[in-house]
Amino acid sequence: MTQAANTAHQTHPVIATLTRGNYVESWHRGSVYVATSDHHEVLTLGSTHSRMYPRSANKPLQAVGMLRAGAKLDNENLALSAGSHRGEAQHIDQVTALLESVGLSPNSLACPAALPANENARDAWVRSGRGAEPIAMGCSGKHAAMLATCVANAWPTSGYLSPVHPLQVALRDTVERLAGEPVGELTTDGCGAPIFPISLAGLARGFSRLVDAELGTDERAVADAMRLYPELVEGSDGDDSRMMAKVEGLLCKYGADGVQAAAIAGVGAVAFKVDDGGLRTNVPVLAAALAQLGVKVPAEFFTVDVLGGGAPVGSISASF
Q1: pTM for the structure as a whole
Q2: DSSP 8-state secondary structure symbol assigned to residue 213
């Protein structure tokens, strides 16, 4: 991180607080961008026009790039490719079927080995005698779709994560087009794929373009698939899945290290980054940001309980 970035980081406002009892125990600083569908900025806090790493919040934009490159992905596989699954049986089965449909196996996946993130799925996985495997990693859906895109174009499946591979060049071009800005210097995500850094404003623009696109376009196909199958985007215990199921028309996707993006057609889009990289504030901050656009969000999403001895003794909420 540059010195300028470090200095900017120190000026970011508090966007969420955690209270325990009658005291504020933790403050979370960050940047928040909220704009209407016609690009009127409703709320800008912190650094909203400088580049950051969207992490997995970029996946819906990358999924558009895979369709544009000729990948044949039905709604279930499209939702999975744009998501960060929790390793439940439905996710493992879907990834396996996608790979088999293009003549590949889980051995082709280049993402790191992991155990399922869902607690029940992880327990069942371990009891069955299985250890960490690439297919259980939360990004294996994206990786399977990347491989399917390579097969559709007769591109080599080996080295598909290289930034100069035709796949990644195509995905970079799509992210830039949707974000409306050039990406910054690339680095590597936790799953091994290149990260395309853009601004929060660019990320929000990209999500708006997905939900506001015409029927029949690749952008709209990704948005509709994710909203039709939210359980494949994350899982039964996933916040993105819960919010898309309960907030009408919502498209949302989190990214590691405190990133979140969301949009609703004809309403607007949100993107934010929590400086400390934690995800515990994402739901209440997203709820508050959507409320800035007049979206009706169920009350359950505005706070997260803080527990003491197993009982609620405080809460996490947004500060704007």
Answers
A1: 0.95
A2: S
